[in-house]
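Model it.
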Amino acid sequence: MPIQHPYTHSTAHAFPRFHHSAAFLPPIELINSRSISPPLHSLQMITVEMKRAISKIVLSKEEFLAMHSRTPLHAKVYDDILLLVGEVVTSKISIRKAAQVLCMYSTLLLCKHTVTTREMFYQKRALFKNTSQVQALIRAAASGLKVNSSAFNIVPSLKGLACGPFSITAHGMETHFSGVCAIPRLADGAAALSSADIVLVVEKEAIFHTLVQKKEEIEARVGKTMLIVTGKGYPCRNTLVLLMHLSHIKTVGIFDCDPHGLNIFKVYKQGSRKNPHLCLPRLSRAGVYLSEVENLAALSSILPSSKEYALLRNITPKQAAALDIAHDLAYMVLHQKKASIEDVLISASLPLYFSLKIRELFSYTDSSSRS
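Modeled.
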């Protein structure tokens, strides 16, 4: 029965010549050789070299499965490579796409440790245009093999940053963090804890680093210990997973009051379309607000024809109400103005502004619990 291959939109059959063997090790050696990565001299050269490699294949399925027995997906990978080789020889799939897939499978089968998407991109820049292409390939392969994308040894790159006390326990080992660090990947079964009284999420990396320098002053003002976190814009999986583990701690976020800032807040609180389960329903937005800006006329404009304006329209009234951003959203749409954290800090020092926000959060929580 024909099988729909995940990397093409055509229906693929196993190529007769390879019915009892698979093109794998020579192509993998070719992909990992200097002849392809980097530099990539010409696609025609790859075609010739790969076809030569394919013609030398003699591995039986039994040999292949025995060689890669430690990999749970080895049987599925073998069958998929069989289809892939057939599509290469019959020109149903490009050589470049085939090389990308084989590169991914070589990581899965031959690497004993995990590799980040960024590492894979930089190691094979001749094959991939950007990290998004690597991520899309993994999703396509996972869909085709009907497995979770985490089954591959390729994990999201470290992006988010944290500063403050927290620890991660995995495989019986506990690792402690305190200063500025990249948020590590939390493997399945891992747990994270923090002794901080409050988790402060900030949208921008620049504001994060300024806060780190003023952290002790702010903590002295409010009498609370902080864990400061930034996703450097839209948060990565590692950042969201860590925050979800610490969701029992009061968590407050500071975002720009602009289309991107509100959408980033939305991803934190409600999840994204791809990962709606990665979210922080209890996250409170403490700013910034348009009402905090003294001179609204001096704010930057949002052009109706811009992508920013389209981002505003993508937030439905129901979502705006749930996020408690309806007022700011309506003002931005009506007056086509936006405010950044920097706009607010013109009239207030950073330690004072964040100290007031934290005090407001705790006073509101205390009054709510008394009532």
